[in-house]
Write a structure and sequence with these properties.
Blueprint (H helix, E strand, L loop, with lengths): L1 E6 L7 H16 L7 E6 L4 H10 L4 H11 L3 E9 L2 E2 L1 H9 L9 E8 L7 H12 L3 E2 L4 E4 H4 L4 H19 L13 H9 L2
Parallel strand pairs: 1-2, 1-3, 3-5, 5-6, 5-7
Antiparallel strand pairs: 3-4
């Protein structure tokens, strides 16, 4: 399986890149044993000027062309953006603007975002899902948002979300049906049924 990882973090090191790397590792762990996974990371920071020039001229540079081919030629995609002013980054959006509108049709995608506060977590559902819906990609059910506080809090809940999302992407990319997790509780109607048998 070819896995493309697009990360729009601007700093080095970047929490956006850290989340992208963890999502890629969780996806690899979810792939069937013995199945090779080739991971290619596209750091948008490195091709920011190329993206801008392409928007102005319509001609991609060799580096941008390689990034586009990496994303469009992958079997699955992980896309992670920092949140600025309650939305995905302009660089992130600009990169997906230069792709052909039909280039991601049916492609399994795992959506991720990072931000300073939990208040921006809805960016996954109100901005990223519509963007990839327009591109006719196939986002997995679980998106992962990591606030600054998630990184220093033992990361248990964050790591569980990462593992769940990575497993969903691996399953979708392999063409296997996604099986929902078994609930850890007994539904109330089953509890009632067990008392009526007495």
């Amino acid at each position: 399986m070819k896995l493309a990882v697009v990360t729009a973090g601007l700093s080095v090191p970047s929490s956006t890149r850290l989340l992208a790397d963890r999502l890629a590792a969780a996806t690899i762990n979810g792939v069937a044993a013995g199945s090779p996974v080739e991971v290619n990371v596209v750091e948008l920071r490195d091709i920011a000027l190329d993206v801008t020039k392409n928007l102005l001229t319509g001609f991609p540079s060799p580096d941008l062309r390689q990034a586009i081919e990496t994303v469009t030629g992958a079997d699955a995609l992980i896309a992670v953006t920092p949140v600025f002013t309650a939305g995905y980054s302009g660089l992130f959006k600009s990169f997906f603007d230069v792709l052909d509108a039909e280039s991601l049709v049916g492609k399994p995608v795992l959506l991720g975002a990072t931000g300073g506060t939990e208040r921006h977590s809805l960016v996954l559902d109100y901005q990223l899902r519509p963007l990839f819906g327009y591109l006719k990609a196939d986002p997995v059910a679980t998106g992962v948002y990591a606030a600054s506080s998630d990184w220093g809090s033992g990361e248990g809940a964050l790591q569980r979300r990462i593992e769940r999302a990575g497993g969903e992407l691996a399953t979708l990319a392999a063409g296997r049906p996604v099986v929902p997790e078994t609930p850890s509780f007994v539904p109330f109607d089953q509890l009632l049924a067990s008392t009526q048998d007495r």
